[in-house]
Amino acid sequence: QLQLVESGGGLVQPGGSLRLTCAASGFSLGYYAIGWFRQVPGKEREGVSCISLGGGSTNYADSVKGRFTISRDNAKSTVYLQMNSLKPEDTAVYYCAVVGRSTLCKASAASYWGQGTQVTVSS
């Protein structure tokens, strides 16, 4: 069964950093474009960043450009989201999922969701 597992969330102060990890169980991430998404209660799940199969193409939401960096290590079947200069509005549950391509960074087009990891930015 294809499954993604997120880790690395936690509580961090404004201005701090976290690195999220997305790992695969049952298949290799190296065959898929992968996206990071986030959701807060009462709001739709939004695309944060997506990366192409080879890692050469990336896509970011305007709200995180310049602060977040997506990367991947296909040898380890892992995708990362480095989050710097975190703001309280970044607080959400973060999910990774398979996407058709890095430019299609929408939750409605994603599949094989992980269980999510909570990120809380608060002083």
Briefly, what is this?
With 123 residues, this protein is an all-beta fold. 0% of the residues lie in helices and 46% in strands. The strands form two sheets. A six-stranded mixed β-sheet has the order 2-10-9-4-5-6, with no helix packed on it.
Mean pLDDT across the residues is 95
**Helical content, roughly?**
under 10%
How many E-type strands? Answer: 10
Order of helices and strands: EEEEEEEEEE
Radius of gyration: 13 Å
Largest sheet: 6 strands, mixed
Low-confidence stretches: none
| Main sheet strand line-up | 2-10-9-4-5-6
Helix/strand/pairing category: mainly beta
Distance between the termini: 40 Å
Tally of helical runs: 0
Work out the strand percent. over 45%
In quaternary terms, these chains amount to single chain
Shape: globular
Notes on the protein architecture:
The protein has 123 residues and is mainly β. Helix content is 0%, strand content 46%. The protein contains no helices and 10 strands. It has strands spanning 3-7, 10-12, 18-25, 33-39, 46-51, 58-60, 68-73, 78-83, 92-99, 117-121. Strands 2-10-9-4-5-6 form a 6-stranded mixed β-sheet, with no helix packed on it. A 4-stranded antiparallel β-sheet has the order 1-3-8-7, with no helix packed on it. A hairpin with a 4-residue loop joins strand 7 and strand 8. The radius of gyration is 13 Å and the shape is globular. The termini are far apart. The model has no long low-confidence stretch (mean pLDDT 95).
